[in-house]
Amino acid sequence: MSLETIIYRQFDIANNNAVEIELPKYKIYAMCNLRGGIGKTTLSFNLSYLADDLLAVDTCPQGNLSYFYDKDYYAGNQTNVKDMLLPYLVPGLGKATRVASFIGATNEYFSDKNNFYIPSSEELYLLPSQLITAINQTAGLQQSQKQLALKSILYSLETEIKRELSENSLDKCIIDTSPFFAGATQLAWYAADALVIPVRTDQQSIKSLELLINILTNPQSEFRKYLPENDMNVPKIQMVVLTHCGWSTVAGARNEPNQQTKLYLKKVYDILSKNRTLLSTRNPENHLFMLDDFLGSGRISSFESKPMELLKEGETKVIDRLRVSVNKSVDKCKNQLKFISNQLW
Ligand SMILES: Nc1ncnc2c1ncn2[C@@H]1O[C@H](COP(=O)(O)OP(=O)(O)OP(=O)(O)O)[C@@H](O)[C@H]1O
Ligand SMILES: [Mg+2]
């Protein structure tokens, strides 16, 4: 019954006439799931275009989101997210300020958006051990000092994001995370008010969703074990976005997900139903959205660092000597992205 509601709503979303869901709205979202290649960065990039006065933070050492914003990113000379975090972990380093850059300066498609970003750094691969060392060093302190020191470390990214939001007069933030929990992803979870979780239509993504929920709920998890009992500031799940969805091509099937999509839709729905208290409204129907396979449009969008919203059906591009075109379902994908964006801010 309820899966039907979700599927019917997708039909209305595709046609841009779905009724808004009254979800609570938050300021800081982390885009995460503990699996690679499922669409975290692609979704972060596109959502960052659809909002204004937004700060995008790249906490993934691969730096894919940073590269979307700046083709020169891998030259590696910007002040970055690691420079913001290190002073909280290593004594003696001065704190960074005004780290965020105007995205429009390096990506022309963002030139009329008041949106900023904080670049990543390859050195974030070292952050997990630096973070654990810093946390362990608090162990020898007396209880009240220990709590203060731990809080400063765990909420370092949150403190820095809030400072950057205020310094740049911004009011929305999306944090793209890596597929690994330790390090900056962990800090992103402490910083976030709520999570956006892409899940690809495959079994590994379902496993990683279950793992994510375990980390969120298990008192012994790496995430929860450092939080004081009276400070269980656990981010809500705002939505799961099932990515790479496909639809039936059988004649007469107007709005029927294909078998694989339907199977994984049901699996995600069942997991959400079992974990209602983690959802920002407790009703799983309100928190599950579908995003189609972007096909050629996705390839052109990534190749040109151009948001999907700006692509037009029929546009073509030669990529790796192959002619790729913006497929006719691009408007459907744009409407799906816009609806998702409207449920966040
Ligand atoms: N909805 C989609 N339809 C088709 N292709 C997609 C979609 N979303 C992402 N992709 C493609 O899938 C690949 C991985 O996407 P992306 O980099 O966004 O994943 P990720 O979860 O951020 O990966 P990682 O964990 O490595 O950072 C890219 O080639 C991207 O273009
Ligand atoms: Mg990524």
Describe it.
This is ParA family protein. InterPro entries: AAA_dom, DNA_Partitioning_ATPase, P-loop_NTPase. Residues 27-225 form the AAA domain. Pfam families: AAA_31. By secondary structure, the protein is α/β, with parallel strands linked by helices. It has a domain at 36-190: Rossmann fold (3-Layer(aba) Sandwich), CATH 3.40.50. It has helices at 2-14, 40-50, 64-69, 81-89, 127-137, 143-154, 156-167, 184-191, 203-217, 259-274, 295-304, 330-342; strands at residues 28-31, 54-58, 101-102, 116-118, 172-176, 194-200, 236-245, 288-292, 316-319, 322-325. The protein has an eight-stranded mixed beta sheet with strand order 3-4-2-5-1-6-7-8, with helices on both faces. A two-stranded antiparallel sheet has the order 9-10. Strand 7 (236-245), helix 10 (259-274) and strand 8 (288-292) form a beta-alpha-beta unit. Helix 6 (143-154) packs across helix 7 (156-167). It starts with a helix and ends with a helix. The relative contact order is 0.18. The model has no long low-confidence stretch (mean pLDDT 94). The site of adenosine-5'-triphosphate (ATP) has 18 residues, from helix 2, strand 7 and helix 11.
- Look up the CATH topology of the domain at 36-190: Rossmann fold
Compute the gyration radius: what is it?
A: 20 Å
Strand order of the largest sheet: 3-4-2-5-1-6-7-8
H/E topology pattern:
HEHEHHEEHHHEHEHEHEHEEH
Distance between the termini: 28 Å
Number of strands: 10
Question: Which ligands does the model contain, each kind named once?
Answer: adenosine-5'-triphosphate, magnesium ion
Q: Which consecutive residue ranges, at least 5 long each, have pLDDT under 50?
A: none
Percent range of helical residues: 25-40%
Going by CATH, the architecture of the domain at 36-190 would be: 3-Layer(aba) Sandwich
What top-tier CATH class of the domain at 36-190 fits best? Answer: Alpha Beta
Strand content: 5-15%
Q: Characterize the largest beta sheet: strand count, sense, and whether it forms a barrel.
A: 8 strands, mixed
CATH superfamily of the domain at 36-190: P-loop containing nucleotide triphosphate hydrolases
DSSP summary: helix tally: 12
Morphology call: globular
Mean of all residue-level pLDDT scores: 94
Class derived from helix and strand content: alpha/beta
